[in-house]
Amino acid sequence: MTIAAKLSSRALQLAKWVPAAAVLTETAVGSYWDLARTPYVREVFSELGYPMYFATILGAAKVAVLVALLTPGHPRTKEWAYAGLFFVYGGAAASHLAVGDSPDKWGGPLLFAAFTVATRAALPTGVAITQSASLNKLGALQHRPQHA
Asked: Which end of the chain has fewer CB atoms surrounding its CB within 10 Å, N or C?
């Protein structure tokens, strides 16, 4: 492998890990902030008109996402975790847009929604499993007696 190819490969790996690290870090920090109901969270939720108990729901969901993404295996759960994050960040951006906030308020969540899509897209193919593959794995689709 040439030096240029090695550098290109490392740059590609870095390009994959930067959004992943950003999403994981924001999810961990955001989870803590939501659960602790920091002054920033209180201010944003008040501005958007959301009840504070919603912060607890979001914080707990983000903890579940972190567990799903950081534990090995369970590709279907990871798919749902990425989908959940996309809806959290997309919903945050839409909420800020709905109240007329400027791009400095909705741009960050929109960027994290894009990072979430990029992170999921960078996973190796075959990570997502099909229902038939998982059922075959469990032996559910083996020969069954036919009932007349």
From this structure: C
Model pLDDT for residues 105-141, shown as the tens digit of each residue: 999 999 999 999 999 988 766 544 444 444 445 454 4
pLDDT at site 125: 61
Given a contact cutoff of 8 angstroms between Cβ atoms, the answer to whether 41 and 55 are in contact is: yes
Q: 3-state DSSP call for residue 8? A: helix
Cβ distance 34 to 62 under 8 Å? yes
User: Residue 36: how many CB atoms within 10 A of its CB?
Assistant: 11
Give the largest CA-CA distance in the chain: 67
Long-range contacts of 35-40 (CB under 8 A, 24+ apart): 35/59, 35/60, 35/63
pLDDT at 129: 45
CA-to-CA separations, 100 to 48, 59, 104, 108, 110, in angstroms, rounded:
10, 25, 11, 15, 15
